[in-house]
Amino acid sequence: MELTEAVLIAARRTPVGRAGGTFDGISADRLLAPVIRACLRDARIEPHQVEQVVIGNAAGPGGNIARVGALAAGLPVTVPATSIDQQCSSALEAVNFAARLVQTGAARVVVAGGVESVSTAPWRQTRPRNRLETPRLYTRARFTPEGMADPEMGVAAETLAQRYQVSRERQDEFAAESHRRAVRARQTGTFAAEIVPLTGAETQVATDECPRPGLTVERLARLKPAFVPGGTVTAGNCCPLNDGASTVVVVSAQVARGLGHEYALAFADSGVGAVDPVELGLAAVPACANLLARHPELSLADIEVIEFNEAFAAQTLACLDQLGIDPARVNRDGGAIALGHPYGASGAILTTRIFSQLLRTANPRAGRTGLALMAAAGGVGAATLYRTVRLAASG
């Protein structure tokens, strides 16, 4: 069967807020709905034309947040919606799933992305086995079966730092640079075209909350280890807890042409991979390798824009070292350490960043490439390859 070309014609995100901060008390569907509406306006698509909604979410209340968000956005009740939980890579897999729907002809117009509201995430507790047992509160589900190692994220990052010799100094330098780039991008308005301003707890919010001006390696060096005594991972060289949402519109190239779009971001391919959960942050490496194995004509050196989800500097640097990627090439406007990591939304945020860098330019052109990479809890990873295409002549 010949595959239909799937292209992205719109990509937006909210500002990213710190948990308990800007968007405290704002539910996931209320974060998601305005972004869906903005994407549809950008794409020149009416709500009734949407055939499917696919949304990633990791820490929410359940209840199919994709459906709740779609209805909150004003989509007709006849539009189906699917939620995906692959933890940190949920939104990237949602975009991949949407693209595969379009490629196979199962849909022509799909809204995809992710959302996370850590500020309103529910508390969880175990069910008592009898009347005398006290319920036990827990913050996250297990990512492995009983009896198998299931390290906390920070502990797993420490493991990578030790095994792959990522020093504290490198981690702090990487974190400081992420903040420097993000602050510069925020100050110069680089993110303005992709952000959907939202009304926060008190005022309208149009910029990311977490990038810190003036954060230096010297200041980061004063922080104590956060997860392992004597370790190297601190609160300063890992991502904060965050709220945010991001979506894209995926359509067939034929639909995009009919809507009058001249350029689009084509979904080229995606890959997945998995590793021992003890080294969970390394899973982006096999995901990338599996993707590129299907594209022998392409090397990492050929890819113009690389966005990597910076959950931890240790984990990011270990992956980049294994892949042979110079960190200077990655996340040119800062990454999750500075901008934040709203788990279920981050993959769509990476995609939106690629969309902006490749298409929101004065002179877009075909043939440019972008790569989104991330690892997720439990030891799984995802990678998605994009390329710009010209659909029609201007005018």
Automatic annotation (TrEMBL):
<dbReference type="Pfam" id="PF00108">
    <property type="entry name" value="Thiolase_N"/>
</dbReference>
<comment type="similarity">
    <text>Belongs to the thiolase-like superfamily. Thiolase family.</text>
</comment>
<protein>
    <submittedName>
        <fullName>Acetyl-CoA acetyltransferase</fullName>
    </submittedName>
</protein>
<dbReference type="GO" id="GO:0016747">
    <property type="term" value="F:acyltransferase activity, transferring groups other than amino-acyl groups"/>
</dbReference>
<dbReference type="InterPro" id="IPR020613">
    <property type="entry name" value="Thiolase_CS"/>
</dbReference>
<dbReference type="InterPro" id="IPR020616">
    <property type="entry name" value="Thiolase_N"/>
</dbReference>
<keyword id="KW-0012">Acyltransferase</keyword>
<dbReference type="InterPro" id="IPR020617">
    <property type="entry name" value="Thiolase_C"/>
</dbReference>
<feature type="domain" description="Thiolase C-terminal">
    <location>
        <begin position="270"/>
        <end position="385"/>
    </location>
</feature>
<keyword id="KW-0808">Transferase</keyword>
<dbReference type="InterPro" id="IPR002155">
    <property type="entry name" value="Thiolase"/>
</dbReference>
<feature type="domain" description="Thiolase N-terminal">
    <location>
        <begin position="7"/>
        <end position="253"/>
    </location>
</feature>
<dbReference type="InterPro" id="IPR016039">
    <property type="entry name" value="Thiolase-like"/>
</dbReference>
<dbReference type="Pfam" id="PF02803">
    <property type="entry name" value="Thiolase_C"/>
</dbReference>
